[in-house]
Amino acid sequence: MSGDNKEIRFRGAGVSPGLARAVIHVVRDDLDDVVRYHIEPSQIGNEIARFEAALVQTRVQILEMQQKIAEAIGAKDAAIFDAHLLVVEDRTLIDEVLRRLETERCNVEWVFQEVANNYAETLSKIDDPYLRERAVDMQDVTRRIVRNLQGKAPKAVFSAAEPHILVAHNLTPSDAASMDRQLVLGIATDLGSRTSHTAIIARSLNIPAVVGLHDATEKLESGQHVLLDGYTGLLIVDPTAETLSYYGEIEIRKGQVTKELKQLRETTSTTSDGRHIVLSANIELPGDVDAVAENGAEGIGLYRTEFLFVNRNTLPSEEEQYETYRKVAEQVKPNPLIIRTFDLGGDKLAVGAVDVGDELNPFLGWRAIRFCLENIDIFKTQLRAILRASAVGNVKIMFPMISGLEELRHAKAVLDECWNEVGEKKSGKMEVGAMIEIPSAAISADALAREVDFFSIGTNDLIQYTIAVDRVNERIAHLYEPTHPAVLRLLKMIADAAHANDIWVGVCGEMARDVATIPILVGLGMDELSVGATSVPRVKMAVRSLAMPECQQLVNEVLQLQTSSEILARCLELATKRYGDLLG
Ligand code: PEP
Ligand code: MG
Q1: Cα angle vertex 33, ends 29, 35, to 5°?
Q2: Which residues are catalytic?
Q3: Alpha carbons 29 and 546: distance in angstroms, whole number
């Protein structure tokens, strides 16, 4: 916090871009008081019945909320509530409550709150961001179950009737679901991180958000006037005239950029000197397809099919997969649909249907193509479904986590077997590609390039394996540097090997959506960039603002530099010159 005249600034992390100006509505964590009272043994049955009824009621409420969120912002975000449903069904938790009811003989809301709080506390202490988020889920559901036991209506934290910026210690998915988007112009929380649910929901709803403000709720009062900067993570109380005028200008500039981005939908992603770079979208679920054309992408560059396993305990059959792939292919044709075969394991799903077990180093373990080649039935079922769907659209296939030539040949041999099983395709052959996301594949890219039709570079993994930085570990996030000289050298090796063998090469990792590094990818001669659909307009604007010679010159220069920060600084220099408004 810092003061300037009357203005007070709170600094956190901007997790959903945008500006908002309004009065604040501060929500404090006022947990309902739960009194403890003794019960007779004869009343235990009654307490159990009350508990069961509250669990059923809570389940119904969560399903209703999930439905509401699915309708408002899509099934993917609604899936957040699956974690809540798991709490209501958690046998260990329920059994512990029943056991303590017998031994302690007191009212069930008190016993339940004790047990649930212990659970949440244990989870919150574990040094894992995912599990810490589960503690928040636990608190959210606990609050709901206790209120149901007390016969109170679900709590709506958002009682302000005028447009406002919501300031809370923490926001849970339930809170977000009951939020009125017309009234909540911005969100600011004491807790939270980029991967927290508050951030995910705020981004989906396009509401500016700042998290990690520490003790803002203790220092602020409802009714104060603030300016929220979701770009840089600032909450400014009583902004001065100077601050307001500074932000007024930013708002005008950002408004212009948004307008320009919308107009880009029908244009191609071609550099200012005429080189076309295919701009595709990444999707996880079939429901994401509408956003592909809406944002002006030229097809799907990465369909992460392992998301078919979300929320289910059975394997998707060949028929079900065929129907899913066929529909997606039909929706995007004549543009391409690149289906990546299952990339299960690692930070991905280890769900009921496919148990990859616990591993010490899951990212280096039984994952992706390694898993598929040993679970040949699962693999072949998927391959047959893809081959059949390829008859109706412009379908291509690619294998994740290829580490070398033998593995690639093995995967292709299985694909050939499947061709024979489904019968030759009538209209030509389907393109087969390899994801290049392991350093060994990058280094042997020349050999691999002779045996595939394209490469798609998975920079998310390539960076983590090259620098040995776990991509989901917060503590070493500062070492995860896309502009590391070693990463750039590998990218160059891959691009050169592809072109020397007359195949095309794309980038489908997050590096392709980072407007700071796009000039390098363009300069290296990447033929395709594939990014999340909502990032497509920004990437298109960046590509259209650049010229090939300046990007090639940049690549030549940065390949001589020895540190990530020097390389990044050079990239930013060019990016700022060409499309400064897209940065920051
Ligand atoms: C990548 O690794 O860059 C990639 C696109 O695949 P995923 O993020 O699904 O591992
Ligand atoms: Mg990957």
Answers
A1: 160
A2: 197, 508
A3: 49
Exposure of 320 in the CB half-sphere (CA atoms within 13 A)? 7
- The residues near 420 (Cβ < 8 Å, ≥ 6 apart) are none
306 in contact with ligand 1, CB cutoff 6 A: no
Q: What is the pLDDT of residues 293-305, one digit of tens each?
A: 989 999 999 998 9
The rounded percent of the chain whose pLDDT value lies above 70 is 89
Q: In residues, how long is the chain?
A: 584
d(CA 195, CA 174): 17
The CATH architecture to which 269-582 belongs is: Alpha-Beta Barrel (3.20)
Q: Which residues contact 262 (CB under 8 A, 6 or more apart)?
A: 537
The reply to whether 269-582 shares the fold of 2-30+156-242 is: no
* CATH 3.50.30.10 matches 2-30+156-242: yes
459 lines ligand 1 (CB under 6 A): yes
Q: Peptide bond before 334: cis, by omega within 30 degrees of 0?
A: yes
Which tokens belong to 54? 């509250």
> For tokens 């993917």, what's the residue?
76
Domain ranges of the chain: 2-30+156-242, 41-149, 269-582
Fold of the 41-149 domain = Enzyme I; Chain A, domain 2 (1.10.274)
- The one-letter amino acid code at 232 reads T
**Strands in 278-354 per DSSP E:** 278-283, 300-304, 336-340
* C-beta separation of 124 from 63 below 8 A: no
Nearest to 520 by CA among 478, 564, 479: 564
**Going by CA atoms, what residue is nearest to atom 4 of ligand 1?**
458
CB distance 23 to 223 below 8 Å? yes
> What single DSSP character describes residue 302?
E
Token duo for residue 325:
């792939």
Distance between CA atoms of 243 and 33, rounded to whole angstroms?
42
Which ligand 1 atom is the nearest neighbour of the CA of 511? Answer: 3
Strands (DSSP E) contained in 372-518 are: 394-399, 432-436, 454-457, 504-507
What pLDDT digit, counting tens, does each position of 495-507 carry?
999 999 999 999 9
- CA–centroid distance, residue 530 to ligand 1 (Å): 11
Which two structure tokens, joined as six digits, stand for 228?
Answer: 């929220």
pLDDT per residue as tens digits for the range 87-132: 888 888 888 999 998 898 989 988 998 888 888 888 777 777 667 7
- Edge to edge, what strands does the sheet with 19-27 contain? 2-4, 7-11, 234-237, 225-229, 19-27, 164-168, 184-189, 209-211, 13-16
Q: Which ligand is nearest to the CA of 458?
A: 1
- Please, what's the b/e burial string for 166-199 (b: 16 or more CB within 10 A of its CB; e: otherwise)? bbbbbbbbbbbbebeeeebbbbbbbbbebebbbb
Find out whether the beta carbon of 437 lies less than 6 Å from any atom of ligand 1: yes
Cα 8 to ligand 1 centroid, rounded to whole Å: 41
